[in-house]
Structure formats: C-alpha cells, structure tokens
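Lab notebook, bench 4. We co-purified these components, and the gel suggests they stay together. Before we commit to crystallization screens, I want a quick structural picture of the whole thing.
Request: model the full complex, all chains together.
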Amino acid sequence: MLTQILFYFFAGIAIVSALMTISRRNPVASALWLVSTFFALAAIYTLLGAFFIGIIQILVYAGAIMILFLFVIMLLNLGNDYEPDFRSSVWKATAAGSSLVLLALLARMIAGPATPNQTASVDLAAAQVEQYGAVGAIGVPMFLEYVVPLQVTGLLLLVAVVGAVVLAKRKI
Amino acid sequence: MNAALFLSAILFVIGAAGVVVRRNAIILFMCVELMLNAANLAFVALSPRAGIDGQVIVFFVIAVAAAEAAVGLAIIISVFRHAESVDIRNFSLLRW
Amino acid sequence: MVLILALQEAAHAAPEAHAAFEPTLPGLIVLLPLIGFIINGIAALVAARAATRLRALTHGHAAHEAHGHASHDHAHAVATHTHVEEAHDAHTHDSHAVAAHQHDASEQGHDAHDHDAHPAGHAEEPVPTGWTHTLPSLVAPGVMALAFIIALLNFFGMAGAELHEPVVRSYWSWLPVGDLQVDAALQLDQLSMLMTLIITGVGLLIHLFSVGYMSHDPGYPRYMAYLNLFVFFMLVLVLGASFPLMFVGWEGVGLCSYLLIGFWFREKANADAGKKAFIVNRIGDFGFLVAMMMMFVHFGSLNYVEVFERAPELAFGGAVVTAICLFLFVGAAGKSAQLPLYVWLPDAMAGPTPVSALIHAATMVTAGVYLVVRSSTLFAMAPTASLVVAIVGAATALFAATIGLKQWDIKKVLAYSTVSQLGFMFAAVGMGAYVAGVFHLMTHAFFKACLFLGSGAVIHAMHHALHATHSHADAQDMRNMGGLRRYLPVTFITMGIATLAIAGVPPFAGFFSKDEIIGAAWIGSAGELPLSQGSLLGVSGATWMGIIAVMLSIAALMTAFYMGRLMLYTFFGPNRTGDEERRHLHEVGWTMTVPLIVLAVLSVLGGFLNIDSHIPVVSAFTPLAIGGELALHGWLHPIIEGAEHVWESNVTGVGEVHHAAWPIILAILIGLAGLALAWVILKPETLGPPERTPAYKGGLEKALYNKWYVDELYHTIVVRPVYFLSRAFYSVVDRGTIDALIDGVVGRGSMLLGMTAGRVQTGQVNTYAFVIIVGVIVVLGAFVAL
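Here is the predicted assembly.
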C-alpha cells in the first residue's frame, strides 16, 4: 500500500521532471530537471527491489554523467543568452502526435491480451537478493556468467576516456 | 510491474518527443539519456519475472551510457570550437 | 528464208518422237545469270575500291563530286582502250573517248542534264581499265548465251515430246509451314519455256548492246552485275512452280529495276525515279499478296498445279474468285504499268537505255501479262474481273497513246508507247484471248526492244557529237535531231522496220499480233467469245468489247501517228544538231548494230508464228507460217486448256466465231493512215532547237505534254496527305505524345520524385530520429494488429 503510493508519487515526479527537461530553453535548467528525473527513477528502482541499481543510478548518472553535462555547458558558456532552439511548430505537432501514437501502441503491447500475466507468483530477482545480498545479487552473475561483458565494458571505458581526451583537445 | 512498464513507456515517449523537437545538441543528448533511462526502468521492472539478468543488463547499460556521454560531449565540444554554436544544424553536412 | 524453212522442218518433224520430256539442266538456266551477277559484282566491288582510292589521291581538293558518268579520256587514253573497244569503228577512237550514257529526269520542269553541264576545265574521272572492266563484257553476255542455248535445248526437247502436263522439278523444300508446302521448284511447260526463250534471247542481244553502250562508264561492272541479277530474278519469276516463287522473282525484278533506273544515282532525279518505280510497284505487290493469301485460304496450296486443279470447284463468277482475280490484277497493274499505277514507267527512262529496252519493254513489264495468262483458269472463272482487266487495259492503251503524241523526248515517246502496248496485251488477256496477248507480248518484245536500242544508238551518237563541241544541248530531245538517216543508216533502217511493225503494217510482226487482239474485240462484241456473256456494271460483255474495240482502234491510229512523228523528226528533214556537231555524227559500233539488225529481222519474221488461216487477208500469209498454222496457239494450248474447260462447263449461248474481213481491212487502213497523217501534217522543217521551238501550242497540247497532270494529281491526293500525316504523326504522336510522356512523365517525374525524396536527407539528427520513431510505430503497429 505504502509502496504503491510512493511509487505513484515518484512516478509523477519523474514524468513532470522529464517534461520539464525537454521543454526548457536554458540548458542548465534542462540538465537540472534531468537530475531530478534520475533521482525519482532511483527511488523507483529501490521500490522495485533493485537496490544496487538504484544506488548506482545516483552515483553514476546523477553524480557523474550529469556533472559532465554541466561541465560541458559551463565550458561552452551556453547558459547565458538563450536563443529559442526549438524546431518549428510543425515539428512540435508532429512530435506530439507521433509520441501519442507510440504511447498508445506501447500501452497496447504492455496491457494487451497477448501479453502474459505479469503479476508473477515468484519473484526471481528477490530470491537472488535474499541469497547473496543486494550487491552480491548483481556481483555474482557478473563475475560468473557475464565476466566477458564486464571486461569488455572496462575496455570500453578506457577507450572512451582516451577518445574523449583526444577529441576534445585543441591540437592533437 | 505493469505500472512501472507504463511509466517506462511514458518516459520513453517523452524522450523521443524531445529528440525530435530540440535543436540544441546538448539538450538533445539529454533527451537520449532520458530514453536510455526509460529502457533501464523497463528492464528493472521485468526483472522479477525474468530473473536478476535484467538488473545486470541495466548495470552495463549505465556503464556504456557513461562512456557514450563522455565521447559524445567531446565531439560536441570539438564541433563547437569550429562553429561557435551547438545548434544541430551545424552538424548537418551529410545532407542532400 | 532458209531459217524459216529450217524451223518449219523442226516443228513438223517433232511429232515422230513421243518420248517423255526430260528437261536438260533446267536449274542451270536460272543459275547462270546468278553466277554472272556474282562475278560481275566482285568486279564492281574491286573497281569501286580502286576508284575511291584513286579519287582520294587525285582529287584531294575536290570541289565537285565525281559523277557516275563516264568521263572524257584525253589523247593518251587511246592506248588504254580495252580490246572490246578495238572492235569499234575507227571513228570512235577520237581524242575523246565516247561517253556513252543516257539518263533522263522527270519532266517536272527541269531536265537533269548529263554531265555535259560541266565545263571542260574540270578534271573528270578517268575511265578505268583492267580486268574489272573487260571481264564483265565477256561474262555477262556469255552467261546469257549459255542460258539461251540450254533453254533452246529444252525447247526442242519439249517440242519433240509433245508435252501435255507441266514438268515440275523440285530442288528443295523451301516453305514447309503448317499446311502450306512450297518447294523451290521450277515448272517447265510451254508458257514458261516461251517466256524463258524471250528473256534469254532478247536479253542476250541487249547485253551485247550494253557492252558497246556502257563500257566507258565507271560503273560498268556494277551495271552488268545488276543486269545479270535482273535476268536471274525474271527467270525465277517465269520458271517458278508456285505463286510465292513467282513473287520472289516479282520482288526481285522490282529491286533490280530500282537499282538500274537509279544507276546514276548521284543525280537526285534519277534516284527519285528509281524510288518511284519501286514504291508504285509495291502498291501492286500488296494486291498480289492479298490474292495469294485468299488462294491459300480457299485452295490450301499455292503451287500452280494444285491451284488450277481446284479452282473450278469454286462458284463460277462468285465473289471469292472475282476478288482473287481483281487483287492479282492490282499486282499486275503495278508491275506492268497500267492505269492508275503506270506513272513510274516514264520516269524510269532516267536509267540507261538498254535497261529501258530490257526491263521496260521486253521483260519486266510483261510479268503482269504472264501472271494473268498463267492464272487463266482463275480469270476464266471470274468474267467480271476479266472484263475489268480488259477495260483497264484498253483505257490505258488509249490514255498513254494520247500522251505520246506530244512528247519531245525520244525515250518518253517510247515509254508511253510501251504503256499503251501493254494496255493492248491486257485488253487481250482480259477478253480471254490469252494466246493473242502472249503473241503480242512476244512481238512487242522484238520491235520495242529494237526501237529502244535504236533510240539508244541515236542518243549515243548525239552525245558523241555534242561532247565533241562541248555543247550543252539535250541529246534526247527530238528538236535537236533531224535528218539523221544520212548519218545513222543502219539505225534508221532497223528503227524504220520496227516502226512499221508497231504501226501494224503487214507483213510485219505487229500487224498479226495487234490485229488479232482488235479482231478478238470485234468478235467479242458480236457475242462470239465466252466473255461476251459476262457483264460488268449491268452492261453486257459484248457491249464492253465493242467499246474496247473502238478504243483500241483509236489507240492504234495514234500509235502509228506518234511513231511516224518520231521517225519523221529524228531521221527526216534538215538536221538541227548544229553545223559544228554534225561533223561528229556517225554510226555506232558493231556491238550495237548487230542486236538492232537481229531484232529488226525478228520484227519481220515474228508475226509468222501464229498465222490464222480463218482470217481473211491474214490467210494470204499461210505459206509463210512458221511451225504450221496457228503454231503459237497450238504450242500454248495446254496452258489455256484449263480456261477452256471452265468456259465449256459454265458458259452457254456463245455464238459461232465468224471472221469478217472488214476489221482487218480497217486495221491496215488505220496503220497506214496514221503514218500518212504524220507525214502530211507534221513539217519537220518548221522545227528548230528547243529554245526556239515551243513544246506545245494551246491548251490541249499543253495537257498532253504535261501528261494530263496525273503526277501532279497524285502528288496532291496521295503524296501531300502522306507527308501531312507523317508530319502530324511526328509532331503530335511521336514528339507530342510519346516523347512528352517519356520525357515529361517518366523522365521529369523521376527527377522530381528523386529530388523530393532526397529532401529526407536533411542531415539533422532530429529528422532521422523521427524517421526511426515512425519505423518503430509501424513495426509495433504490425505486431499489435497481428
């Protein structure tokens, strides 16, 4: 019961923040609203039982990626004179229309007759959490089944760092 | 779980609309991140049914999104140096 | 005389031998001219290559194109004369080689002059020598002589064997198409044998004439090649055993006619004349083809033997057989220059004169008559169609004769005379007098070829004279001639004999053949011919034949008149050529006079081949009959038996044939009167050169001179609409519609489509994202729907 109310509360925050994100002129405002969205999402993750993911969401997304965004905005000195950077109203209408259509389709898919009953009797993820703890529930599969993706991701991050440095230098 | 999926759908659609409508490259990027998050939420929402793999995937998605953000922003910076603006129309040389 | 007796002997001795007729190498008769064509053709190609190279060397700055005419040789050319010319008279070894060529333009206001129009200063093409020009002189007449000899052997064999059924020699299966079986087969019967003898015999004489006439022309080997090719096709035409094979020959002679008329093709008028001939022929060919198709539908076969066996099964006088015959006649009218498709023949005088003699007098134009005689069974079945043939023939005879009265060009007079005489032949075969038609065909070949060759000799001599003084006068205009009998005696005598023959003066050949035709018309008007029972447009056959007899008689009068006029203006009276030129006028060489003499002799003797002792006056000549009385009739009887059977079964009420004396007397009087009138009325002394003598005086003469404006009429009602249609189709349909569709709709449209669709590539990420979203929507939509 409480879970439900909290869920809807944070969901509302998430939706409002998302709408704000896409509609602000000021990039800084837009970024901050996105941070708000991330916070709400983190809360929802926690409510859904993905504790580790929720923490990681805040640490990485809100804490690192958004900081990066804000740094870039500051570097490029974008926060001052904001020209309207929306496309024409035709595009706005198109976007709105197609979004609604897409939403309808997705809703149909989620709640439609072909989709299997989603109120599961067994919560598999929770079982894992029970067994290994919140962190271990992620950690154990990662180092057992997903060790290759783990190492590759590490490599990817290395490459990304080097690439970012190279791309952003004034003179190579 | 249904509700979470609905939320994921809504957030995804909002992000998509934002991508179509905004011209500022950085804000565009932020909308893409929003879409990624919506996908993550969907993964997490389905993990009671599908197992812990859903959350593991989310972990990886977050890591890759971070890397992608770094590189993408570096590109935006270098284009900005050339064009003095992050308007997406500066990025549109591959046109008819 | 000895010749006559020998022939009579051979004919009487023949009945002893009743062996079956074994043809001797019939295929070789047809093949020999083809071989001649190939050899001469190779010589022509080699000569042309050499000439092109030579021209490129010597005329690098050529301000004029080399004409196909012979050029002047200068003094040193004497040494390069070929051995053929050594046989010429010494006179021809002048400092100028003889440029022997002739052509004429259509009378549309301009005379295409021969290259006399060039001032002497221009360097002309040297007359080539070497094997390419001596070989054709031997090969071309040689193959003709061989073919003639083989034909003669077959003729005697056939005469000895008293053939009743045609002998068909099949060489290979040419068109085995479904139900149609046509072989490459030769049919040897009396008619085809007779035609073969005429073609090869007269052809041989003309080839010999051409050696003298054309050997100085740079295109000489090509000329001989075409002549041989023509003879080949003509032989295929008459010897073919089926209609399609005849049609092959039919088309082939049309082709060769085109090639030879336009022989000097660098002159546009000549090329146009060639095209005109071919195109008008083609109109007739359409009729021939339709007739063939109808025959196939109704008879199931196109071989003569089978068609004529099955023909009597059709309804007598019914629509089918009448249609077939009418369409066949359309074809014949095109080929044999009858109304309304005769317009090509006068223009065809643009070709060399021997060509006119061979093709347009003796052989090709007789193909139509041959066709009708060959199909006599069919025509006997369709009295209406036969009457049409007869009437058109008579009308043509009269019409062309009127035009011939006022022409000044010697060849044009002869051309219209040919059209007129062909009209006589068609009138004959139309009336059912098939033998008379073939008889006239044969005698006409003799005297008309003699006349044409004679005119060729005259023109040759005139050319020589005019060249000597570089005069620009027209060598073919009679107003430039006159009194030539002193200078060209042999030509004068032979042409005189031929003129008497064509005028119908006994005992020359034309008298017997032409008056057999007119006599048949009078007999028919008295109801004594099977065709008198027929009717056309409600008028009975007898009445029509009376009209035909009158028309033919008037035409005969005019024939005698204009031929007398021709002789008068050319050979009598004072000479108008000019004092300077007169010194260069002399008789032509032996290669040209010998054929003239032979043909003149034939014009005298030819008539004795079909003496009918039932006819008064004619019966006086019975002792001279070659081969016995009515030799030709007897010879051709197996051919017309089919028609006779048809008449016996279907026609009743035909009267007894009475041969009165008055038609014959009338005919003789007409012939003599025509000549006398010409002598009395026309005063050659009053003529002057063309500049001072108007072509016509008064309206009627103007109409005659301008050929009754028929060409202009055709131009207005046929040519102009065709041009208009063609331009309309070009601009409206081709350019306006199709091009607009393709250019506009397809071309421009795809361009627009491309440009519009290309706008999708904006380069902006937003747009691409949107497109992806749309794609996702579509896919999800598909999922949801299914």
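The mean pLDDT of chain A is 87. Worth comparing against the SEC data before the next meeting. Helices of chain A lie at 2-23, 27-48, 51-75, 89-111, 124-144, 147-168.
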